[in-house]
Amino acid sequence: MESLEADKNPVVQRLRSWDGQAVSEVIEFRGETTVVIPREHLQRAAAYLATEPFLYFSFLSDITTVDKFPLEPRFEVNYHLLSIARSDRLRLKVRLAGNDPVLPSVTSVWPTANWHERENWDLFGIRFEGHPDLRRILMPDDWEGYPLRKDYPTEGPR
Amino acid sequence: MANLDDCKLMTTTIETPTGAAQTMVLNMGPQHPSTHGVLRVILELNGEIVVKAEPVIGYLHTGIEKSCEAKTYSQVITLTDRIDYLAPLSNNLGYCLAVEKLLGIEVPKRAQYARVLLTELTRITSHLVWLGTHAIDLGAMSVFLYTFREREEIMKIFEYVSGQRMMTSYFRIGGLALEPPPGFLDKVRRVMDALPGHIDEYEDLLTNNRIWLGRTQGVGIISADDAIAMGCSGPMLRGSGVAYDVRKAFPYSSYDEFNFDVQTQTAGDCFARYQVRVAEIRESIKIVRQAMERVAKAEGPIKSEAPGIIAPSREEMKTSIEGLIYHFKIYTEGFAPPPGEVYQVIESPRGELGFFVASDGSAKPYRVKVRAPSFVNLQSLPTLAVGRLIADVVACIGTTDIVLGEVDR
Question: ipTM of the predicted structure?
């Protein structure tokens, strides 16, 4: 769903000219821009987006996952970025296979990612490599399973 | 101002040796009156000085996001009330705006103004609860009695307009649940006329109170850079000098037509956050007054027209066959937005409240994620509390203004 409108977006243009490999898809929906990034480029792209003076996405609002089970790639991890200086938002999306839900941690770029990544580990079982303290956060420490996955029943284990 | 000087002296001379023999681990909560619910903080202390503070959360986790996936889009509204139970209308608004964005529908102006009016009243009640409970935490009992008196008046307005004091669910996808009852604006006007005087009373009790200043000034400092790095929003961020307010930066529900100022302070301490919140109550009164005028002047429906998505009026349901069919279908199977994902933010009393809603084209949301400002703000508690006295932890938790229902969801 690559549109001309998305290509005109200056943020997308910047990202493309910085590293064409880092942008695998751009989605425009209801005025929101989503940039799909391959996993191996995530950390570099995050550091670039957070510090590049023109972009300055210094505020990470949220990290959240969507489980597409039984489709593959199963997980979509969304990073909601905010640039306070430019009043702009951007969503980064990384797609992960169901048998390998591992991502590099972005805590070194945005310290606030710490609890967001713990939440995604807790509820979806996405492992963040390089996270300083990857423990469950909402569920009890001895909980089994990842409650927000689609193959986890809503009314307790059957 | 002797006690203030003492306070500053203490902050400068604190050293935190982390020798294992010297420190003591103290468990605070989850059953502790000043944690505002079920927050637990594991404190490592050197004498009375906090060396390490680790919030432990999840005691109120009710799986709201999972429940959302089993309900239709309209049914989810009642769950959003229960996320942040001190600001239910803000949560209603955030969710409704997200679904309206997903559907691509526009809400009539009159409903938008009524939404602004009621969410600003919500902000006032939320800040009043915060002010009262925070003052109790720090030993000023009487303020609580006054703020709850005024809060009750506003709760009566909520009850009058929606039938509920707290779990209002008054905003619906596409507009409002009901026509505001006659005399609604008069009631609001009466409360708004009295409120500025009451806020002066609170300020008389606190703003120049030496004990209050001693307990809050220079306590729990967070710099602007740290606040941004830790994802703080709302009064937490504005108390550190960053003038970021979603109502100004990304206006929703016609906020761009209203005249108000973003309140900031630069000190970044507990007192700065107190000042920001009190000033915000006054700004909210300004907005409510403008919204009253606009609601009175605006004409037209309170719900948008979208057959098959927004339920028809009672009249239409009783008199036309299409109306009856739509009514039946909407309340039995719901409606199906197009596939896609949206992230809608609003300025809740606690900060940036975001709703991420993903649709797969069916009548139930595929995923609802709440970006809870309390959850993110609480993460910076160690930044505020480490190096301070144990009594200051209470002040720090207080001015973070957490609602555990929202932290744990």
Answer: 0.90
Distance CA B348, CA B126 (A): 10
Among residues B281, B265, B272, the alpha carbon closest in space to that of B147 is found at B281
pLDDT in tens, chain B (409 residues): 344 444 443 443 444 455 445 788 888 878 777 777 788 889 888 888 888 899 999 888 988 999 999 999 999 999 998 998 899 999 999 999 999 999 989 899 999 999 999 999 999 999 999 999 999 888 888 899 999 999 999 999 999 998 888 888 899 898 888 888 988 999 999 999 999 999 999 988 888 888 899 889 888 899 999 999 999 999 999 999 999 999 999 999 889 999 999 999 998 899 999 999 999 999 999 999 999 999 988 888 888 888 888 888 888 889 999 889 988 988 888 888 999 999 999 999 999 999 999 999 899 999 999 999 999 999 999 989 888 888 889 889 988 888 888 898 8
Residue B229 lies in a domain: yes
Query: What is the CATH number for B339?
Result: 1.10.645.10
**Region for residue A9 given its phi and psi (left: phi exceeds 0; alpha: psi -120 to 50; beta: otherwise):** beta
Q: Quick check: is B18 in a domain?
A: no
- Does residue B26 form part of some domain? no
Half-sphere exposure of B33 (CA within 13 A, CB side): 7
Burial class (CB in 10 A: 0-12, 13-18, 19+), B296: exposed
Residue A71 φ/ψ region, left for φ over 0, alpha for ψ in the -120 to 50 degree band, beta for the rest? beta
Residues of A in contact with B58 (CB under 8 A): 136-140
User: What is the spatial distance between Cα B67 and Cα B393, in angstroms, rounded to a whole number?
Assistant: 34
Q: Which residues of B touch A58 (CB under 8 A)?
A: 228-229
Q: Nearest by CB to A66, which of B242, B367, B409?
A: B367
Residues of A in contact with B102 (CB under 8 A): 30
Q: Closest residue of B to A1, CA-based?
A: B340
CA–CA distance, B247 with B257 (Å, rounded to integer):
11
φ/ψ region of A56 (left if φ > 0, alpha if ψ in -120 to 50, else beta) reads left
Report how many Cβ contacts below 8 Å link chain A to chain B: 88
Put simply, the answer to whether A78 touches B341 (Cβ < 8 Å) is yes
Query: Per-residue DSSP letters for B182-214?
Result: TTHHHHHHHHHHHHHHHHHHHHHHHTT-HHHHH
Total count of domains within chain B? 1
Provide the chain B residues 271-300 that lie in CB contact (below 8 A) with chain A: none
Instruction: Looking at the complex, report in whole angstroms how far the Cα of residue B104 sits from the nearest Cα belonging to chain A.
Output: 7
Alpha-carbon distances, residue B228 vs A61, A82, A133, B190, B250 (angstroms): 10, 10, 21, 39, 18
Radius of gyration (C-alpha) of chain B in whole angstroms: 23
Does residue B43 sit within a domain?
no
Structural domains in chain A?
Answer: 4-129 (3.30.460.80)
The domain in which residue B384 lies consists of 64-408
Residue A115 contacts by C-beta under 8 Å, 6 or more apart in sequence? A137, B375, B376, B379
Q: Which of B102, B366, B409 sits opposite A30 (nearest CB)?
A: B102
Q: Is any Cβ of chain B less than 8 angstroms from the Cβ of A156? A: no
